Amino acid sequence: MACGLVASNLNLKPGECLRVRGEVAPDAKSFVLNLGKDSNNVCLHFNPRFDIHGDTNTIVCNSKDDGVWGTELREPAFPFQPGSVTEVCISFDQADLSIKLPDGYTFKFPNRLNLEAINYLAAEGDFKIKCVAFE
């Protein structure tokens, strides 16, 4: 899977929102947004799966601590459409990351790494980033 974007030194602080807007490929199978300290320490692996790895229209979330993946959590909400522009807002605090989906639905994922700042963002897969904003 080719990496579309990698950004480090983000310094996203608790309470701030990271807004990622992009275009989902017309033939999308899946895309990934990884947030954390670096590629081996990911507090949120956000992976909407259209049709891949046996998952259909499911969001899979996970974390990676020192290169080791945690337990996957699956979120049944799936407001993503192939060939559309979409936006996800992610904010976090000491306990959780809050992920706001394009339809306004919000769910939480535990901040398993207890990060106090998010410095790393990587996007890959069938998603072309148009805009990244901090609020």
UniProtKB/TrEMBL annotation:
One of its GO terms (molecular function) is laminin binding. Keywords: Lectin. Residues 4-135 form the Galectin domain. CDD domains: GLECT. GO terms for cellular component: extracellular space. Pfam families: Gal-bind_lectin. It comes from the Eukaryota. The keyword Cytoplasm does not apply. SUPFAM superfamilies: Concanavalin A-like lectins/glucanases. Homodimer. Binds LGALS3BP. Interacts with CD2, CD3, CD4, CD6, CD7, CD43, ALCAM and CD45. Interacts with laminin (via poly-N-acetyllactosamine). Interacts with SUSD2. Interacts with cargo receptor TMED10; the interaction mediates the translocation from the cytoplasm into the ERGIC (endoplasmic reticulum-Golgi intermediate compartment) and thereby secretion. This is Galectin. It comes from Rhinolophus ferrumequinum. The gene is LGALS1.
